[in-house]
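To assess whether ligand presence alters the predicted conformation, the chain was also submitted together with 2-OXO-4-methylpentanoic acid. Input:
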Amino acid sequence: MGTIPRNRTSSELYEEDNLGFGKIFTEHMLTMSYSTSAGGWSEPEIKPVEHLVLHPATMVLHYGQQVFEGLKAFAGRDEDDILLFRPDMNISRFNKSCARLCIPPVDPALFMDRMSELIRKDRDWIPRSPGTSLYVRPTVIATDPFLGVRPSNDYLFYIILSPVGAYYPEGFAPVKILVTDKYVRACPGGIGEAKTGANYAASLFAAEEAHCEGFTQVLWLNAVDRVSVEEVGTMNIFFRIEDEVITPSLGGTVLPGVTRDSVIKLAADMGYKVTERTISMEEVVAAVRKGTLLEMFGSGTAAVVSPVSHFRYQGVDYMVGNGETGEVAGKLFDEITGMQTGARPDPHGWIVNIGAQ
Ligand code: COI
């Protein structure tokens, strides 16, 4: 394995205001190998980040057998705090995705323990400016060098860390999205609810078309009826029509987002009526025309709570509300980021402080 020249020698060198997303990596990574012949996972190892050396026939490169997760570590109010937001949900979703992709699970307690150790080791890289965090990317890939189509016998699990700011170039300002009824992301019985690279590969072509037309993201519709809303691909989606906050039901094709689940609970705590149900573009367009679509926003680990100001559907452009961040999205953003950084109370017990050794 070759070593990578460090892209930074010290965490003081980067500008926290200009981090973007996923461009800078910390000094250490965690790795753990699975071997069917050896009967399971090896001991995890934390070491300097290095390139992976893979045979050109390595199965993940051909058939995409892989799973990943995304969660964030935040600096808290006390110097020693390192706060994770609902990491148990990411670990559990990771293992559910693994089951769907025929990948052996990772022991949740070991996952949590060693991931925390890695984050503590690179704790100086956790940015402290508002809107920043240390993004944690656990990944597992199929490593057999073999060209037949079957589940791999061997796997590599690794975790890398990246100091990040806002995911979108717009920062946390409202984004414009293109609703597509031409392409689909996932279909019933497929792998839409698994967090696996193939779902993101499936989104690229439509996303490129959307970017060329001036949109930040694509809103995906149900593959069968092509009218019910599903998700944005990097975020789940919410609508506020009059007093109801609506998000599409999960049903196998939509990613079960950790932030989605948190938004559902927090919006209910705030007294809004929250419904998980089918919502069609006809209903959304009718609500815009009646003036009752007050807000539309996405939720995701990377995107947090991201308001949608405009969307295009079947060639027609619509503005949501007054085109600015709405009341519910604004309150949820403040509440979630406040909890994540320890500035607000955590009534659900979602925050795990891993700062102490
Ligand atoms: C996340 O929100 O963590 C994601 O995984 C979305 C994306 C960056 C792939």
